[in-house]
């Protein structure tokens, strides 16, 4: 482990303890949580886009017209929520249970998760509602005679729901551990929570694109065609044979055949 107190990066972490920290360390610390907020907002936008287009008619034009609002919200909310981290001092501390280093802030990790956890819980709840509502709408359309990819959409919605619930549970677990300190004697639970936390938001971000690529036949076929097209050399990479050389080759072939 790179973050072990006996690891080769230990001298680097020891340079940024609470007593010897530098102000710039709060920037990557804040970006870590800003990216997490942004990734949850991205997943919320995917669910919102799918829900509005399925639930309401002619909503695609509004998305094109007001897509900039979604971009501003996706960037603005994370920037606002990490301001307390930027206004405080970040530093590396040692965990006595795992013998590892972790980044902390004078603002307090428990305060960071007290902001993060309710926000993620609300976003996850709204996502679950939109996915269920979208699927019910597709069932109604199917009964009315419209062709809808009900089975694939059900699988995608189920996977997104599972990931949302798992990551929200992980955030609630972090918040509970920091505020009430349960599982102090169960190092296995604490180790798994610490291992999964850094990758949580990345799983959420890649979930929807990967599911769309694997479940949507038209997308996978288009991607396969693009891959085959890229493997074919471009026209400017094919060097033409000079006219004199082609005539020589033609004469030699004619003589051999003759």
UniProtKB/TrEMBL annotation:
Residue spans crossing the bilayer: 65-92, 112-132, 153-180, 192-221
GO molecular function, one term: transmembrane signaling receptor activity
Keywords for the protein's UniProt record, in alphabetical order: Membrane, Transmembrane, Transmembrane helix
Principal location: membrane
Subcellular location: Membrane
Entry superkingdom: Eukaryota
Membrane topology, as annotated: Multi-pass membrane protein
Pfam family of the protein (one): Srg
GO CC, alphabetical: membrane
Example GO BP: sensory perception of chemical stimulus
The keyword Transmembrane appears for this protein: yes
Family assignment from sequence similarity: Belongs to the nematode receptor-like protein srg family.
Name of the protein: Serpentine receptor class gamma
Organism encoding this protein: Caenorhabditis nigoni
């Amino acid at each position: 482990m790179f973050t072990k107190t006996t690891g080769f990066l230990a001298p680097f972490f020891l340079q940024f303890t609470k007593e010897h920290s530098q102000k710039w360390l709060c920037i990557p610390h804040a970006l870590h949580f800003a990216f997490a907020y942004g990734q949850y907002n991205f997943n919320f936008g995917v669910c919102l886009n799918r829900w509005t287009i399925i639930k309401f008619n002619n909503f695609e034009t509004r998305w094109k017209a007001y897509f900039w609002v979604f971009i501003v919200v996706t960037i603005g909310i994370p920037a606002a929520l990490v301001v307390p981290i930027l206004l405080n001092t970040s530093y590396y501390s040692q965990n006595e249970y795992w013998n590892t280093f972790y980044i902390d802030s004078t603002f307090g990790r428990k305060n960071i998760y007290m902001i993060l956890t309710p926000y993620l819980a609300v976003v996850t709840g709204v996502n679950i509602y939109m996915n269920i509502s979208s699927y019910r709408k597709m069932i109604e359309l199917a009964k009315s005679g419209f062709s809808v990819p009900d089975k694939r959409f059900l699988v995608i919605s189920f996977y997104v729901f599972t990931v949302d619930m798992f990551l929200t549970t992980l955030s609630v677990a972090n918040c509970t551990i920091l505020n009430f300190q349960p599982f102090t004697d169960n190092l296995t639970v604490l180790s798994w929570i610490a291992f999964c936390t850094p990758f949580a938001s990345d799983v959420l971000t890649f979930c929807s694109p990967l599911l769309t690529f694997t479940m949507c036949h038209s997308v996978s076929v288009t991607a396969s065609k693009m891959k085959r097209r890229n493997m074919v050399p471009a026209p400017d990479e094919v060097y033409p044979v000079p006219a004199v050389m082609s005539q020589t080759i033609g004469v030699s072939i004619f003589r051999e055949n003759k």
